[in-house]
Amino acid sequence: MKSFFPVQSASLLYRIGLLVKEARLRMGIRQADLAAMAGISLRAVRHLEGGKPEGVSLRDFMLALFTVGVSDRVFQALLDDPALDLDSLETNTTKRVRLPRSNPEDF
CB under 8 Å to 16, separation ≥6 — which residues? Predict the structure, then answer.
């Protein structure tokens, strides 16, 4: 099951990768320059621009988007969605999910 990756997610990652590449080229910098500026590996930049989900941490992903200036563009829908208001999300994170205790009769 580990090899499964939703097609829609793969398509979005590929589009974001193209967006990062376009922004990097507009800046006139090489992949190695982006890696140095963002403090991430060259391999991560290559995987990100290629739309490959393997080998790119969320941290590296966010740093690359921020460095080339596309993070707001990529996540604008999240920022505009009232259901994702930070205050309401933070109040809901205090709840924990616990499994019900099992009774000896259940076995």
Answer: 48, 51, 65, 74
**Distance separating alpha carbons of residues 64 and 46, to the nearest angstrom:** 11
User: Locate tokens 């376009």: which residue?
Assistant: 22
Cβ pair 21, 47 in contact under 8 A? no
Q: Tell me the C-alpha to C-alpha distance, in Å, between residue 98 and each of 12, 88, 101.
A: 34, 21, 9
Domains (ranges, CATH) in the chain? 7-92 (1.10.260.40)
Contact 69, 38 (CB under 8 A): no
Residue 94 is predicted with a pLDDT of: 64
pTM tops 0.85, yes or no? no
10-residue block means of pLDDT along the chain (107 residues)?
Answer: 71 92 97 97 95 87 96 86 76 73 73
DSSP-based helix, strand, coil % in the chain, nearest 5: 65, 0, 35
Q: Is 79 helix (H, G, I), strand (E, B) or coil?
A: helix
